[in-house]
Amino acid sequence: MSGILEKFRKAASLRSTLEEVTDAYRLFNGIGDGIPGVTLDRFGGRYQLQFFSADALKDYEQIKSVVLDLFQPEFLVAKFRTDPSGRSLEHPRMDVLAGTPEQAIGTIREGGARFRVDLLDTVNPGLFLDMRDVRLEVESRFRGMTQGGLRFLNLFSYTCSFSVHARLGGAEIATNADISGKILDKGRENYALNGLELRPGEFFRGSALEYVQWALKKGLRFDGIVLDPPSFARFKGANFNVREHLMPMVAQCAELLNAGGFLMVSSNYSEFVLEKFSDDVLNAARRAAPRAKKIWSRSQSADFVGAGRTKESSLVATLVEV
Description:
The chain folds into 2 domains: 2-111, Transcription Regulator spoIIAA; 128-321, Vaccinia Virus protein VP39 (Rossmann fold, 3-Layer(aba) Sandwich), CATH 3.40.50. 31% of the residues lie in helices and 29% in strands. The protein has helices at 2-14, 60-71, 132-143, 161-169, 181-193, 208-218, 242-255, 274-288, and strands at residues 24-29, 38-43, 46-51, 75-80, 93-98, 105-110, 113-118, 151-155, 173-178, 203-205, 222-227, 232-235, 238-241, 257-267, 293-298, 316-321. The strands form 4 sheets. The protein has a 7-stranded mixed beta sheet, with helices on both faces. A 5-stranded mixed beta sheet has the order 1-2-3-4-5, covered by helices on one side. Helix 3 (132-143) runs parallel beside helix 4 (161-169), helix 6 runs parallel beside helix 7 (242-255) and helix 7 packs across helix 8. The longest helix is centred in the C-terminal third of the chain and has 15 residues, at 274-288. The chain is globular, with a radius of gyration of 20 Å.
């Protein structure tokens, strides 16, 4: 027990400075913090404990006790993601270990933004913690733009957190494209939570690729675009496969950008290698914008200790300007 307790204490100490920015972050990241296959995420007073392998369950009772005693969560859920095929992703076993199901829903802060989360809504509570730094940069970039009528495009938008930050930073229009009406409704809730009025053209239910092609035909232009797709998606009989379709889509997105605009491209697909991924993104962007330049490439944020060493903790991300 003492060894597990000390590992969680150390992990919490390493992340203590994040409190200045947010109350939602990864508190424990598997092998990087000393226990392979186990993660703990904090969402305000709500916590999510995840197990990614059968071997990780051998210390389940001890880990549960440590988390309950050390963090005193108002709500704690354990999620079991031990199916190697990933088929249980949308319907994992979930055990509520503290609080009531009603307490799974709440609000977190991230910089000056607020977001609604639901820790019992599949494996994804409504906010991807490993993209926090990029969301804050999107807001900062729009704050630094002096021209009027700024437009932002959020593809595969999920709950529209990037767009909230863009609007808070000064974007006049932040368009969200996603195939799920339920997810877009959560995005509208996040707009309301941040006092943002809904503007025409900000919510598109359909495939992100379909929207990009429509925008090209209409001659629309944007000052910033985020392209953060799932590894695989299906909509109206058409498939999106990140290995085949991402780079052609990068080129199309670059064509949609105003001069000086930025494009951030990311993926959690574990087979991508950061250096090659960033080179591929830049080369694809240069098909439409020959003067495009890479500003940065990175993996997960600092709270994801050991990022890239396991499938459950992998991210490649690159930002280019045109």
